Predict the structure.
Amino acid sequence: MIGSLSGVIAEKEPPRVLIDCQGVGYDVEVPMSTYLTLPAVGSSVRLRIHHVLREDASLLFGFATAEERELFRALLKVNGVGPKVALAILSGVSANEFRLAIAAEDAAALTRIPGVGRKTADRLLVEMRDHFRDAPLSGAAPRALPPREEALHALLALGYRPQEAQKMLEKAGGEGATTEELIRGALQGAASK
């Protein structure tokens, strides 16, 4: 199985990129999140690959980060989600936005992604919730989130809906506020209503 490709970008047309690896061209499908980070044609690139072997085809899917590839692989395990739908999900939202939608059980956010209907969104909520709880995405070492994003996670964990939590944070504090200050301000603002 192919795990990664390093080479020169020979062609680029969404959602496909042709990578020339020492004279052999590999057609790779990529989500828009990866496509937008690719350098110009003629530049060197390295992509993490998920290789799908079928009776009638050998397909390569490329990702800029290990986190994207792991999420893609996790999505493929969901009943009714194939490679095309998984690519559409990664093209429609970032890995972090997807996690937030799952954590908040926000099916409406998932159905806004082209190719994801209500039934698929419901299956994603059930099956991916367990994935994130039991086996968080691997890849880069955990990085500190910005205070506003960390505060949003905390409010979601307390049971607030995403839209409600966002509005609470808008009124909570300005730039430079710590996570604790933002949470305290948001909760005080909610209590004063």
About this structure: The beta strands are 4-13, 16-21, 24-29, 44-53, 58-63. Residues 147-191 form a domain with the Helicase, Ruva Protein; domain 3 fold (CATH 1.10.8.10). The two ends are 58 Å apart (CA to CA). Residues 135-143 have pLDDT under 50 and may be disordered.
